[in-house]
């Protein structure tokens, strides 16, 4: 569908994080560094998991997909933000804005589903260790991962299919550094009732639904850990899920604060948005590498093999 036949607006203006040129220069350097760390950190996780046979397990299969999603999540918004920080004309086409919203839906929805799947994996490993291989069969965990991607894409397709029918009249300023569905809905001068219903269903499914699944899994995990008599046993059981619990708290906590804030471009709203879409993808590989002994050992082995290959 040709959007120009239905709209008098062909582009939006992104106000970004600051209008001060000196602040913009500092923000460019800061977010460029964060973006490079995000890409390098998540690529490192992907390469280590691929190279080390000790990490060819269910949990690290999930983690490799999480790292790939984080690369996508950051790449959807940060490059355009960096471009606008250096540009005087901070615009994005309607088509580009809709494309950005689409991929934000895909990345955010898939990550929420993956985190809930990983919580279920930890539940099966800790609460039913003897049946873990049967519960988390190869067929099931592959289906769970591709189901997560499928739900993310389906959610994005439904919302964008409805969004392309919106009419944008005069207002075209987005008080943000990226395009998000609430911003587009507030700029539309057409009926958005169906869009609001779709957005509400998305929030309930990928927000509340996945959070409830994670909460139920960890309720059982905590109960099981507390029932272990020895202190060392409790510590060992908790260590197997501490990295994931940290990542879940960071993602859902920042996501909740981001979506509860009014879409007004206020400093608090922008800070929570940056935390959710920019900082969290950077921190995930750090959380899983610094708090996970297996990853640290695998990284060391991979580096040693690489150095030996160079010497030879």
Structure, explained:
One of its GO terms (cellular component) is plasma membrane. It comes from Bison bison bison. InterPro entries: GPCR_Rhodpsn (IPR000276), GPCR_Rhodpsn_7TM (IPR017452), Olfact_rcpt (IPR000725). By secondary structure, the chain is mainly alpha-helical. It has one domain (11-311): Rhopdopsin 7-helix transmembrane proteins, CATH 1.20.1070. It contains eleven helices and three strands. The protein has helices spanning 21-51, 58-86, 94-127, 132-135, 138-163, 181-187, 193-226, 231-239, 242-260, 267-290, 293-311; strands at 11-14, 91-93, 173-174. The protein has a three-stranded mixed sheet. α2 (58-86) runs antiparallel to α10 (267-290), α5 runs antiparallel to α7 (193-226) and α9 (242-260) packs antiparallel against α10.
Q: Give the strand order, joined by hyphens, for the main sheet.
A: 2-1-3
Q: What is the correct CATH architecture?
A: Up-down Bundle
| Whole-number tally of structural domains | 1
CATH H-level name... which superfamily?
Rhodopsin 7-helix transmembrane proteins
Strand content: under 5%
Coarse shape: globular
Indicate the multimeric state. single chain
Report low-confidence residues grouped into runs of 5 or more: 1-7
**Secondary structure: helix percent:** over 70%
Q: Report mean pLDDT, rounded to a whole number.
A: 87
What is the CA–CA distance across the termini? 58 Å
CATH topology: Rhopdopsin 7-helix transmembrane proteins
- H/E order of the elements? EHHEHHHEHHHHHH
- How many H/I helices? 11
| Rg calc | 21 Å
Q: Assign the structural class, choosing from mainly alpha, mainly beta, alpha/beta, alpha+beta, or little secondary structure.
A: mainly alpha
Specify the biggest β-sheet.
Answer: 3 strands, mixed
What is the highest CATH level, the class? Mainly Alpha
Overall number of strands:
3
Pfam families: 7tm_4
Transmembrane segments: 25-48, 60-78, 98-120, 140-168, 196-216, 270-290
Organism: Bison bison bison (North American plains bison)
GO molecular function: G protein-coupled receptor activity; olfactory receptor activity
